[in-house]
Model the fold of this input.
Amino acid sequence: MSEDRLFVVTNDQISPTRARLGLAIIWVSFAMLFGVAAWQIFVPDAADSWRPTLYAYLLWITCLCIAQVLRFGEQGKRRLFVMPATIFVISMVFFPLIFGLSIAFTDWNLSAIDGQKFNGLDNIRQMWRDPFYWNALTNMVWYTLAILVEYVIAFGLALILNSQIRARKFFRVAFLLPLMLSPVAVSWMIGKSMLEARFGPIARFGREVGWSNPSFFGDPEMARAMIMIMDAWTFIPFMMIMLLAGLQAIPKDIQEAAKVDGATPWQNFREVIFPLMLPVSITAIMIRIIFKLKLADIIINVTSGGPGGATDSVTSFIFREYRDRSNVGYGTMLAMVYLVIIVIGFTIFMKLASRWMRPKY
Amino acid sequence: MAETQIFHDSDTDRAFKAKWYAKRVAIYGILILWTIICLFPIYWTITTSFKLAPDVMQGNMIPFWDYTPQWRGWRSLGLSPDTIGERSTVRDEFLKRFWNSTIAAVCSSLLAVILGSLAAYGLSRFEYRFGFMKNDDISFFFLSQLILPPVVLALPFLVLYRELDLLDTRIGLILLYALTVMPIVIWIMRDQFSSIPTELEEAALVDGLSIWGAFLTIILPIALPGMVAAFILSLVLTWNEYFFAALLTSTDSVTLPVMVASQTGSQGINWWSMAALSTAAILPLVVIGVILERYIIKGMAAGAVK
Done:
């Protein structure tokens, strides 16, 4: 076994009774959990909800943690650092995922009277023929590609903030502020009032400049671009800060050496700064993609997918599938397919990224 | 003595200087332009909350200059000076949503920071082996939760919470929010802990502290700035969360973003009250952003630079 970074000599003397006690409380509490669950399954009217089973489950995992210390002493105390978080994440992710899978293959509609019914692959067949889902997926590709533009802007701003300027702190705070705002508030502030066609300041400005009839959400391409801009507005600060941190970590002597060697600013950027920034850039873009794939709030509140689904993201599409049509079964299947696509996409991206990250020299 | 000037700026030097000034102007121009882009929507929202219908329609921009600020928008929220003393159902509603948001954001961030820091500390100090999972696998397991889109969890949670009677409760939101920010916390804290030398704990252990004692009394105070950074970042993300709140709450535990969103549906020309509501919703985080900017940047930078 590999060494711990923190090496501790301990003299654990765990008596067999103590170890047995540890084992016992696990099994007793597990038996209780099992008993309560069975009771709730076989006597459906016994309680209003599944809360009793939830409490029994909580008791069981608490006993599981205590038993680690009882059975393994010092080793158990170390495990206790990681166990609560692990158990928390597993119970919050795996149970719903398994649950979700079982819903995904049903025709469950919350407004239908006769509950859920297994319908095999019908949902997938329906998805295959659903032009709006494919449209939403295509939109996601466009939205994700917009990250490249955001990256260029963020990099430029980070370079400027890193140069010799006055009042750097003021500019940093000002540039950070959009990230603090909730997307819902942003969708009102920008999407519904500033971009309003009659009285919004931007439409007014457009008319001054000579655009006779400014409309921002009538035309599909325009509407999509507006959503991209609003999302970029909130998240450019995020990339900018990460890139700025990366720039500040570049050792000064490397840049001085480049200057002494007679590099022009452009060469300095292309041959020194950019390669050194590559790992940070990839991390920033990766996190940005992750956030982009969750994009929904602005779309739901500004356009609710319109005009004609042109601005729909997958998340907002599924949200409406549930909200308007109560189609739980179909919506869950769409979400699962989305997850599979993301996982495959990310695996490929990570493989590529680890190849790019390898230094050239 | 000083009649003859000995040193002259040559023409090339002067050209250099002109270029330098041009560059300065360009840089500050970009900076100011971007500052306007960042701050104008906030300025617009705050000023609009003091406007009346004619001001909105005429496109007046600058208070006191081309229109007189009125408390109309804030009065409709029950937060203007003349209504603050009276009873107001809208204000009660607003404060309730505000309180729900605060509770959900603070509790879930605390939960995530506590659980996440413990896990990050363990992963940075000890070698674990759970079945086939080793340290790197466990870290990856935590971080991979980031790519899980909320929409995948939303519907199963809706059904699960209904069975568990957790729908429309704050505790349900808190658990879910803690899950969504946990990977970020672990990412930041792992970085923090691995930059603290292990000799500190070794000394403490020699002096007779247990491993948890050493963690709580020695390491925690050192890592506190990092924890604050992780906490603030989680706070921002959870305070602004809309998607889960919109699906999982209906009456009792509706959060502020859901309230704002439900008001935007009724468009009309009622901009002043919407602007007042938006201002009230963004103000806490704007204040946090201005005061605690250092921590936010520290938190975001933690993952970027290794």
User: Anything to note?
Assistant: Chain B has a mean pLDDT of 84. The radius of gyration of chain B is 27 Å.
